[in-house]
Design a protein that fits this description.
Elements (H helix, E strand, L loop, with lengths): L15 H16 L6 E8 L8 E8 L6 E5 L8 H10 L3
Antiparallel strand pairs: 1-2, 2-3
């Protein structure tokens, strides 16, 4: 293993890897997803007018279909199972 550290890489915030893993697991449970479905969790910062400061985006990616996306205006660790359920329910309209 090399000792190279990417100086441009984002610094991982404490608790984020665990929070991302928990969101992925809860998404799989909530939507009854199989292991071959990709669940992506991303936290975005927006500086545009009218945009929330922080947004967590959860994407469900299945080969051959359009992605299913849920957006929650909270940081990754702040997202609750209820937030997740509401965001995916809103996307079904």
């Amino acid at each position: 293993m090399s000792g190279f550290v990417n100086p441009l890489a984002r610094k991982q915030k404490p608790g984020y890897p665990e929070a991302v893993a928990a969101l992925k697991a809860e998404t799989r449970r909530l939507l009854d997803l199989s292991d071959d479905v990709t669940v992506s969790v991303t936290e975005l910062t927006c500086r545009d007018l009218g945009c929330p400061d922080i947004e967590t985006v959860i994407g469900i990616l299945v080969a051959g279909t359009a992605p299913r996306i849920a957006k929650i205006h909270k940081t990754v660790p702040e997202v609750t199972p209820a937030d997740l359920a509401a965001a995916f329910a809103a996307g079904k309209r």
